[in-house]
Amino acid sequence: MASKTLFHVFAVPMASFLLWGCFSGSACAGPVRTRIVSLNLCTDELLLELADPSHILGLSPLATDCAESVRCEAARAYPVQRPDGENLVVTHPDVVLDGTWHRPTVPLVTDVLHVPFVQLPSIASLADIPTQIRTVAHAIGEDARGEDMIRAFGKRLESLHPVHPEQILTATVIGANLAGEEGGLITDLLKRAGFRLSASERPDGTIALETLIAHPPDLLVTGMISEGVSLAEDAVHHPALRDRFTGMHLLALPGRLTMCGTPDTLDALTALIAAHDRLTGAESTP
Description:
286 residues; Fe/B12 periplasmic-binding domain-containing protein; 4-stranded parallel beta sheet; elongated; 2 domains; Rossmann fold; alpha/beta; single chain; ABC_transptr_periplasmic_BD
């Protein structure tokens, strides 16, 4: 009886210790993965920030494209992996990272090889970014690094706000990867920077060029990836737009800043806040 009582005395503190370890992100962290393949641009970017370089087996073809990737220079030190299942048979990684849109052969191969297949969905707001970071960090066994990145992201986000947030200005967004519909990432960025989207007359969130000229917003935001990529980017160069929107009323955002949900997305927010401050007179123009 004495030994049984002694067991109960020590069992509860030990269980509490283990539970605390899970919450602290150390004792219950996933195993560190040493053979990681990323097949998606957004997982590429997070992987490059979170993983030990020696653990990265391959990245997606877009990783080294500086028009698309914010980590293109760092990515060039790693092999490029075609985003299909056949290459996974050759490399045989111990975890595969991808987006929700992927080739059908990928989950088939990871299932046969019994390899964890982690899919990262698109984000709808800045609030989704910590979840994205935590998902990738846990998948590769780098939970502590993930939490450090999340804290740094949160600290920077708290410091970003317009000087005159009460002055809500209008903005229209056109170009690559800048969806104009309510509820997307760009809407969240604009709201935090002191803007609201101009009313759209079309179901897909777009606006006619004539309407844009006749009822101009305070700011026209254009998103560019590279010349000739899409009709939306061609519209940016229309002479009527070039003549109507100049100086502080025009902001060109690199497409790579809103392509994925990473801490670098805050660079887009910083640019939008600076534009708001210029328009409200809080920041002098050069």
